[in-house]
Write a structure and sequence with these properties.
Number of helices: 5
Strand order of the largest sheet: 1-2
Distance between the termini: 141 Å
Radius of gyration: 58 Å
Strand content: under 5%
Shape: rod-shaped
Largest sheet: 2 strands, antiparallel
Oligomer: single chain
Order of helices and strands: EEHHHHH
């Protein structure tokens, strides 16, 4: 619940801050008038009173009480009541003031809700960006792991190929030429051996 600022003036407690401020101004005006006023001069007092009433100088209980005191004093001084102005009570002033304060409070609530809504939207946007960033990081992390795994498999494969190439007796791209040369030399030796045997056989028949 919001704290209510109470302004006390001449025994009146104003919960409406605007009315309280107005009452303070009226109290200052009353003190100034009292310094200039001569209560022994009834005619001057009557003139000043009627001017304050017709000009509607006061709008709060502080001013109304002050005017009422002067009015009672004039009536006790045998002044004709017809010459004494009645005190108008402007309730619309207080109602308008209350409505304005209520309107200001409503506007403050609306503005506060608007700010909260804006902060909520900004928070949602930030969370969405954070979520997308985390998803991208996880995606890059998976790609990095996949790349490292493939690289390791390729390295192992290449190493295995070298090992097989160095240990296998079958001709490969690396030792094919050497194997061919060895087989060619073997064929040549076999051919020479057969030619020698054939030559021996021919001589024996002769």
């Amino acid at each position: 619940m919001e704290d209510v600022r109470v302004i006390t003036v001449s025994g009146f407690a104003f919960e409406n801050p605007q009315m309280g401020e107005e009452a303070l101004k009226e109290q200052e005006a009353i003190e100034y008038v009292n310094k200039q006023l001569d209560f022994d001069n009834i005619q001057s007092l009557l003139t000043l009173y009627n001017q304050m009433v017709t000009r509607r100088m006061f709008h709060t209980e502080v001013g109304y009480v002050y005017l009422k005191n002067i009015q009672d004093y004039l009536m006790k001084s045998n002044v004709d009541p017809a010459n004494i102005e009645s005190i108008p009570v402007n309730l619309d002033y207080e109602i308008d003031s209350n409505e304005e304060i209520a309107s200001n409070k409503q506007n403050e609530k609306i503005e506060s809700r608007s700010n909260q809504s804006s902060e909520y939207k900004d928070n949602i946007k930030f969370k969405n960006k954070e979520k997308k960033l985390i998803e991208k990081l996880n995606k890059y992390k998976k790609l990095t792991i996949s790349f490292i795994t493939i690289s390791i498999v390729l390295v192992i494969t290449v190493v295995a190929m070298f090992i097989v190439a160095n240990t296998s007796n079958n001709p490969t791209i690396l030792n094919y030429e050497e194997v061919i040369q060895d087989k060619y030399a073997s064929w040549e030796q076999d051919l020479q051996r057969r030619e020698a045997e054939l030559s021996k056989t021919t001589k024996a028949q002769q």
